[in-house]
What does this fold into?
Amino acid sequence: MKIDESSVTPIFMQIAAWVKEEIQKGNLKEEEQIPSTNQFASAYRINPATVGKGFNLLVEEGILYKKRGIGMFVKAGAHEKLKDAARQTFLEETLKKFLLEADGLGITRQELIVMIEEQEDN
It folds into this structure.
């Protein structure tokens, strides 16, 4: 993980995004323990409170859960939940913009289908 201290995205949100990405990639599996707050803070030279804030955000989102005295774990169903959220974002943002731009260019839905199929063949 690379922390970008000059980013407008707060560090705790960068940490949460990284954990989500690792779950989506399959590098962190459901029911698997993630590094502790202190391990993470030490490895990346970040304040443990900042790491904890990132982890707690994921607990609130239902991605991680705490086992008292043991640590944080990836919640069962987290991968599917993240996949569903990514699909929804794709539909609401990317696809909607794509279709509006195609409309503005006078590209029909049928032409789009042909273009997509041609790209798949390449």
Summary: The chain has five helices and two strands. The CA atoms of residues 64 and 74 lie 5 Å apart.
